[in-house]
């Protein structure tokens, strides 16, 4: 999809540069910039998706609660010194 958006960007700019009428030129440039922005976000989303971990590697609620409970445990008091 992102490559199609990039091709549509090129088409929009080509239309803008080759048009004789000012309205068609403006439409081409607007389409070019809109598709360029959409392609940018599509490439960024693809990059984020390839670097993210799958949901199966995330901790479940019971694991998170067990970790919280283990962090809340207070250490045993030190033994009294027999003096």
Account of the 3D structure:
- By secondary structure, this protein is mainly alpha-helical.
- It has one domain (2-70).
- The chain is built from three helices and no strands.
- It has helices at residues 2-18, 22-51, 61-72.
- α1 (2-18) runs antiparallel to α2.
- The longest helix has 30 residues, at 22-51.
- The N and C termini lie far apart (79 Å).
What are its keywords?
83 residues, mainly alpha, rod-shaped
Task: Report a brief summary of the structure.
The protein is mostly helical and 83 residues long. It has three helices and no strands.
Kindly give the count of domains. 1
Q: What are the segments in which pLDDT stays under 50 over at least 5 consecutive residues?
A: none
* Rg value: 29 Å
**Number of strand elements:** 0
Question: Whole-number average pLDDT?
Answer: 88
Shape, principal axes of CA atoms: rod-shaped
Element pattern in H and E: HHH
Which structural category do the helix and sheet elements fall into?
mainly alpha
Task: Name the beta content range.
Answer: under 5%
Major sheet description: none
**Number of helical elements:** 3
The termini sit apart by 79 Å
The helix fraction, in percent, is over 70%
